[in-house]
Automatic annotation (TrEMBL):
Pfam families per UniProt: Abhydrolase_1 (PF00561)
InterPro entries noted in UniProt: AB_hydrolase, AB_hydrolase_1, AB_hydrolase_fold
Origin species: Haloferax mucosum ATCC BAA-1512
One Gene Ontology MF term: hydrolase activity
Protein name according to UniProt: Alpha/beta hydrolase
AB hydrolase-1 domain: residues covered: 64-252
Protein keywords: Hydrolase
Length: 277
């Protein structure tokens, strides 16, 4: 499998793998994209290609948000930037996978640029954060604003994980913070991105999404609780909900095989009973 990675226009990190001659899959990553500490690398490209191996016969693009975001940049503004990438690289129509914050942006991408989007999978994302999620994002933004990067990353892991990882990961990261610099490539982007998530509310545009849309999330997600997920599915004319029992916000990395298998079948047009957990 060919691996390609780097920066688009010097400001937007990207990874590309799979079959360049096949139909594209466009992946929008989560908030962690704004907390990246290094430039795109072959090691990360290999990890991502393994994570999305169910799409190895497709042209997979994992595209980050532009760096050095202006203060006040919204998830809708970010969607416009992604539409430009899709247009400039003649990728449309694309199947879109939006993970967490990427799922927030994907809602506007599908609503405002419908001609560019074939099908959508919103993973661990909804119309808006729940109350607990809002409190969590405010804490992360506060820690990022103070430059407490190790604490911010540990908090993010604590909220995303379930089971024993919920305790072990933050403890490990807290210890690692004594020796590892968790400062991201562009620190200000972390604050801007947290604010964009907090201000996101897509309820008034869902009826403008014509693409078949899968809302896939864990029923133990503390950031986007089940009522918010159901609200999202209900607002989209061709919406489908897949809930993973006992899984938290880290669905994309904790259950990648099952999740991506379901997303792949959804993109291939299968909508029948028995598709979802």
């Amino acid at each position: 499998m060919d691996l390609d990675y780097g920066m688009l226009d010097g400001r937007r990190p990207y990874y590309r793998f799979g079959d360049a001659d096949a139909d594209p899959v466009f992946v929008l990553p989560g908030l962690s994209d704004a907390f990246q500490r290094t430039a795109p690398s072959r090691g990360t490209a290999m990890v991502l290609s393994g994570l999305f191996r169910e799409f190895s016969d497709r042209d997979v693009w994992v595209v980050g948000r532009s760096q050095h975001l202006p203060v006040g940049t919204s998830t809708r503004d970010m969607a416009a930037g992604y539409a430009t990438v899709i247009d400039e690289h003649d990728l449309w129509p694309v199947d879109v996978i939006g993970v967490s914050m990427g799922g927030l942006v994907a809602q506007y991408l599908a609503a405002d640029y419908g001609d560019y989007v074939d099908s959508v999978a919103l993973v661990s994302a909804a119309t808006r954060l729940g109350g607990h999620g809002e409190n969590a994002l405010r804490r992360w933004r506060n820690l990022a604003g103070k430059g407490k990067w190790a604490e911010a990353v540990a908090e993010m892991e604590r909220e995303a994980a379930t089971g024993y990882e919920q305790k072990l990961a933050p403890t490990f990261l807290g210890l690692a913070g004594r020796f590892v610099d968790f400062r991201p490539v562009v620190p200000a982007d972390a604050v801007v991105s947290c604010t964009a998530c907090l201000e996101h509310d897509s309820r008034d545009v869902l009826d403008g999404i014509d693409a078949p849309t899968l809302v896939a999330a864990g029923d133990a997600d503390r950031l986007f609780p089940v009522p918010r997920l159901r609200e999202t599915k209900a607002g989209i004319d061709d919406g489908t909900l897949a809930l993973f029992k006992g899984v938290g916000h880290d669905l994309a990395v904790s259950e990648p095989r099952e999740l991506n298998g379901i997303v792949r079948r959804f993109f291939d047009g299968f909508r029948g009973d028995g598709l979802y957990p």
